[in-house]
Amino acid sequence: MDAGVTETMGERVARRRKQTRAQIKEAAQRANDDPKVRFAARAGLIANGVIHILIGGIAIGVAQGIQGKADQSGALTAVAVSPGGVILLWIAAFALLGLALLQATEAAQVLSVHRKLVILRRFTNVAKGVGYAGIGVVTAFYALGGRSSSSETSQTFSADLLSTPGGVFVLAGVGLLVGIVGGTLVFRGLSRNFREELEPLSGVRSHLVVSLGLIGHTAKGLALVISGVLFLFAAAFTDPDAARGVDGALRIVAGLPFGGALLFIVASGFIAYGFYLFARARFLRKGPLVVETRRDRKRLQHGESLDD
């Protein structure tokens, strides 16, 4: 009898968990379809695009010998000191939070016959949502009058970690994580997988948007890979000054042979990424995201079922 009662309770708990998951998924799908959320997300994409264009513009200035911080802090400071900049920053902050909500709810839109792919994509979407929320909070910080340097923040963060037991391993982990994110962006750009974020496009419009996405994702990814390597150097040589973020990564590019030209190319890539975000805002995909592998697509081309 005890076994039967235990089994019944277990089934009841499983049923409730299933119902809760279904309710969460339904709520996420409703939020994803909400016109107000999608409007805010489009505005958030435009705000993020402006930030990347400003980073690219500042980096081009650095290549020409003009002082400036070619990173998020430099871009937000440039907006803050401009006429009406504080209002724009508040609008951008709330828009970025809307984008964070939409990105997180994209997890409920993922469909695939591969369970591992579904879990990976859902985790990625939630992580992106957290990232956009973080940018929104930082933007609000600048709207309130706060100022900080991304490079100095990275160095302070690294110094604090290196001064704690086991902190060197955490710092190395941060470097690996940043490098992996950068490598993923490079792969996403070169493979053109970012097209899944957009509604179906064709003709000249498709070529233009795909070109912007390819160049933009690759350039930003390379900058993040270099940033990750700097964190690893900081951990390997216990030197917090080595961790300098995106601005430090771009300055390393500038210090290479033909660095000015290379920095101009990478900076142009950031600008291209900004314009890609504008395009994504205009052609934002709506509805389920069906994730397929290359093998899946080949099987479908041969008329085979993916359920086998």
Can you describe this structure?
This protein has helices spanning 2-33, 35-63, 72-80, 85-105, 115-143, 150-162, 167-191, 203-236, 245-254, 259-282, 294-301, and strands at 110-111, 289-290. α3 packs across α4 (85-105). It has 308 residues and is an all-alpha fold. The chain has a two-stranded parallel sheet with strand order 1-2. It has one domain. The chain has eleven helices and two strands; from the N terminus they run ααααβααααααβα. The model has no long low-confidence stretch (mean pLDDT 84).
C-alpha end-to-end distance = 40 Å
Strand content: under 5%
Shape descriptor: globular
Count of strand segments: 2
Q: Evaluate the radius of gyration.
A: 22 Å
Number of spatially distinct domains? 1
Contiguous low-pLDDT stretches (5 residues minimum) are none
Largest sheet: 2 strands, parallel
List the helices and strands in order: HHHHEHHHHHHEH
**Secondary structural class:** mainly alpha
Strand order of the largest sheet: 1-2
Mean pLDDT: 84
Please count the helical segments: 11
Helix percent reads over 70%
Descriptive key words:
308 residues, 11 helices, two-stranded parallel sheet, mainly alpha
Brief digest:
With 308 residues, the protein is mainly α.
Write the layout of secondary structure elements.
Layout: H1 2-33, H2 35-63, H3 72-80, H4 85-105, E1 110-111, H5 115-143, H6 150-162, H7 167-191, H8 203-236, H9 245-254, H10 259-282, E2 289-290, H11 294-301
Parallel strand pairs: 1-2
